[in-house]
Amino acid sequence: MLQFNIGLSALQTAQQGLAIAGNNLANASTPGYHREIAEITSLNSDQVGQIALGTGASITSINRAVSDQLDAAVTKQTSQNGYVDASLTASTRIEQTISSGTTSPSTQLESLLNNLQQLSSNPADGATQQVAVSSAANVASAFNSAASDLSQIQQGLDESIGGDVGQINSISAQIATLNGQIAVASSQGVSPNSLLDQQSQLVNNLAQIIGVQVQNGDNGQVTVTANGVPLAIGNLSETLVAGKDASGAATITTTNSSQPISITGGDLGGLLSQRNNQLADYQNRLDTLAQQVASSFNAIQSTGLGSSGGFTSLTGQTGVTNISGNLNAAGLTPPPQNGSLFVGVTNTATGQRTLTEVPISPQTQSIQDVATSIGSTVPNVTAYVNSQTGTLSISADSGYTFDFSGGYEATPVSNLNGTSSPTATIGGAYTGTTNDNYTVTFPSTGTIGVTPNLQAQVTNNAGGVVATLNVGQGYQAGQPLSIANGVTLTLGAGDVAGGDTLQTPVVGNPDSAGLLSSLGLNTLFTGNSAATLAVNSSILSDPGQLATSRTGQPGDTSNLQRFVALGDAPVLNNGAQTFSQYANQMVSDIGTDVQSLTQQQSTNQTLTTNLTNQQQSISGVDTNEELSSVMQYQQMFEIAGKYISAVNDAIQQLLTVATT
User: Fold this and answer.
1) 347 beta partners
2) Where are the domains of the chain?
3) In which element (H, E) is residue 153 found?
4) Whole-angstrom Cα distance, residue 627 to residue 630?
5) Nearest-CA neighbor of 425 among 470, 500, 493, 489?
6) Which three-class secondary structure state does DSSP give residue 234?
7) What's the pLDDT tens digit per position in 218-250?
8) Nearest CA among 477, 362, 304, 282 for reference residue 370
9) Topology at the third CATH level for domain 2-65+620-659
């Protein structure tokens, strides 16, 4: 009964069409769902005599509305979104940590410099000394806090990286499982549209976490790789492992290889970039700033004198692991350089001070060699190394003190041959920054303060004339005469002979080797990073040890002025930036990065919206269109029913006629 079959095919087609439209409507908001399209085909005709009669219609396939190009574009954009979002979140946290504020290192450093300036008005005042030392402790605390915050960010990134790797492994396994199910369904002639939608959604979920490349294969399977490393091939998946390399950088490897994988996209790519590059850079820059603050302040503190004067004993705060190894390989921060250490020794009974140079060569000397050299070269001083801690200790003999303040010898080396030689005293405070030697020569014979035109000529190491002094008629014996760079010469009454000389070293850089800072001898700060920076415990307990002067004379604030001058000293970035400029550059750089990432995020949102709209225009469900299809299939069903009823009526009439 051809007519009945035609009607039944129409009913079945309408019923199936209603189911397809209903399924589209039900999944209109389902993530990853692709609209299904019924493919209606006319059935083969039957030959009745010379006439070919149609046999009806049927739905031969149900296709997914797909644009491979748009799907690929959405996947790629999803990966980019994940990368930028993760990068922006991390950069914003870094910015909040290092931004200027009342507790930031740069603000606390400015406060320290101001308090040191205030101390200049009364350098011996204990309360003001305490304020300055407490301010130094606040600087160290600010660095410690910033370093701790950055470490917490690093820990959070490490945890997020591990979480992402776990998700990647889980999603890759699900894609592999779906690949197998899709292949089986396709081989059995079953349309795996629902499985394909799940597969597509999982690929996009994976792209959110890691940059992937997708290749469509046979029977609806996909091969998913990340920068050449397969994550899912067929029904097999790879397992990634999060770890760290020898330098501490976060790495991603596979269970079958220890070779790190380069991850360039997705949330994981952003996390790795921030963890290994951005965050590491600012941690290094913060450490550099802390190290330079410590080095600069320590160089001034160690070569100055506190209100309590010179030392009877001193032990370094920093040790070495191998007391016999060369200092250049000891890992000291800052590392010592070729240069000299000048040790001043004062006889506390007479006030006489000697200044002895100790050559330092880190390439050939160990800390033990330095101790031996100091002990054998500097009179009335002993030096030794603690084999357990690797620290250098220096002590003075009874009745003596020592210091590293440079300056000059108060009693110059005298070569006076007059009948009654005058006393000679060097005074003042040497303000020069270099090391030199002043030689005072008397060109002619005469009596100090009496002989007309009697002069003293002062020359430096290079033979240049530093000053020509009138010491004859008009000069009052016992009065200081200014030589140069804050140094004075005082002559008592007496006679000099032509060619007589006086000599004194003048030392503006008593530790050109940087040994004191390296070994922590009389330093203000200890530690070699932002996390370990601290104020020397000896100075914390006795603020009077804060080096306010270079001579020990009451009212001498020359060392305080050196401290204060650090605020304007370009000691960072190869001598191009001050402390504040370097810190401000850090804040500016991270601010620029955050602004750029924010703009990228906004651009990505626009691109994502445009791509999604284009994709939805092809793959998405238009509820109005589907409702229209429902009405059409409903009408088709009703018409098919009427058609079958009409065929039945006609057959009944024919049977009635045939039986009458």
Assistant:
1) 400
2) 2-65+620-659, 70-283, 408-507
3) helix 126-187
4) 5
5) 489
6) coil
7) 888 999 999 889 999 999 999 999 999 999 999
8) 362
9) Helix Hairpins (1.10.287)
